[in-house]
Every structure is written in structure tokens, then in C-alpha cells.
Design a protein that fits this description.
Blueprint (H helix, E strand, L loop, with lengths): L7 H8 L20 H10 L6
Length: 51
């Protein structure tokens, strides 16, 4: 069976799964300063629209 033949509802039912969508996975994540390399890559490859 190919990936496109599955649906979330079907998988939940088949495996008796419950989704926990309200949990914040990143609540304890601390911010970090991006490296100069990352900043340059973003400037070069990600369009930025002002206004």
C-alpha cells in the first residue's frame, strides 16, 4: 500500500491511537543567536518583503 492510500483517521482507528495536539513541544526551548553563516544564507536565499 502506498503512502497516499493512508489517512490519519484510518491510521488512528487501525492502531487505536490518540493524538495529543495541545502539548507545546518547544515550551522549554531557549532562544539562540544565529551564526553569521546562517544569517548570510538567509539573506542570500530567503526573500524578505518590507512593509
Amino acid at each position: 500500500m502506498v503512502y497516499s492510500d493512508f489517512s490519519l483517521a484510518q491510521v488512528k482507528k487501525s492502531f487505536d491511537l490518540t493524538l495529543a495536539e495541545t502539548r507545546n513541544l518547544f515550551a522549554d526551548t531557549k532562544p539562540v543567536t544565529p551564526s553569521e553563516t546562517l544569517i548570510m544564507i538567509l539573506i542570500d536565499y530567503i526573500p524578505f518583503h518590507r512593509g
